[in-house]
Every structure is written in C-alpha cells, then in structure tokens.
C-alpha cells in the first residue's frame, strides 16, 4: 500500500512540474484577435473576371450583411458597404464568434437594389457562403481571413 501511495505522490509531483504545452494550431484551438471577412463584389453573378481576362464592373455602395443561422439572424450590419472599387470588409470580435461556426452557419447577403449593375427587373438577393483562406500575424495580433465563396442570385420564394 505504501508503494502505491509513493508512486501516486511521485506521479503527481512530476505532473505538476511538467511544462504545459500549447495546443496544436487549427481553427478550433487558436485564440484570434480579429476576424476579417472581406472581398470584392462584382456586377456579374458567379464571376470575378470578364472574358479574356478583362475586368468585370464592380458593385459600388452595396450594403453587405452577415446573416447566420436557419432564421438568418443578422450579426453584422450598419456600415458594411462596398467602396467605389466594390471592396468590403467586415471586422468581428473572435470572442463573440467561433470561426468554424461562422463558416458553417453564416452567409453574406447583399440587400442593395441591383439597378447599378444588373437589370432593374432582376428580383432577389445576392448570397454567398464563407471560405477560410488562412491567418495573418502582425506581431501580437492574429487576423483570421475569410472571403465569400461566390455570390449567387437567390430569387424570393
């Protein structure tokens, strides 16, 4: 019995003295300082370039929403508009949103009228799922980079 007790005490002392190792890197184990969802919105759906590599017109001043869950709860709205070059950026706090859940349950939704780009008779919304493309480290700050997976026109039901 004393041998078992001595072995148990020795193991406990060794375990307490062992250094704590860091978690393996991956989407679920890294503590991120910032999440960036960014991209360029083009006037032609499902594309980024015109034929023969010519530039496709961009969609300026379009409101971009981040909608999550089955009911489409909007988690990022307000000042998320594309600029004159069609670019947008949504910054999020990773303490409020877990990256794998964002990727699985959220989508970007464009709610602006299409009259700047697509035919005025077009009815629906542009919607895109999200895609993780990596992380960028700036000193002590880690930024998770997420882009649209490709906007499609979704007609109302």
From TrEMBL:
Protein name, entry field: Pollen Ole e 1 allergen and extensin family protein
Organism: Quercus lobata (Valley oak)
Highest taxon listed in the record's lineage: Eukaryota
Keyword Signal: yes
Keyword field: Signal
Signal peptide: 1-17
């Amino acid at each position: 019995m004393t041998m078992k007790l001595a072995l148990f005490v020795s193991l406990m002392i060794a375990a307490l003295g062992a250094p704590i190792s860091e978690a393996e890197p991956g989407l679920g184990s890294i503590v991120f300082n910032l999440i960036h969802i960014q991209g360029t919105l083009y006037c032609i759906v499902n594309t980024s370039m015109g034929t023969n590599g010519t530039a496709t017109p961009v969609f300026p001043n379009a409101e971009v929403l981040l909608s999550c869950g089955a009911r489409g709860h909007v988690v990022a709205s307000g000042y998320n508009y594309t600029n004159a070059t069609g670019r947008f950026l949504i910054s999020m706090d990773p303490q409020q949103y877990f990256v794998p859940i964002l990727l699985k349950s959220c989508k970007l939704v464009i709610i602006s009228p299409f009259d700047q780009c697509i035919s005025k008779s077009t009815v629906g919304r542009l919607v895109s799922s999200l895609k993780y493309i990596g992380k960028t480290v700036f000193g002590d700050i880690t930024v998770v980079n997420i882009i649209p997976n490709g906007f499609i026109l979704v007609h109302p039901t």
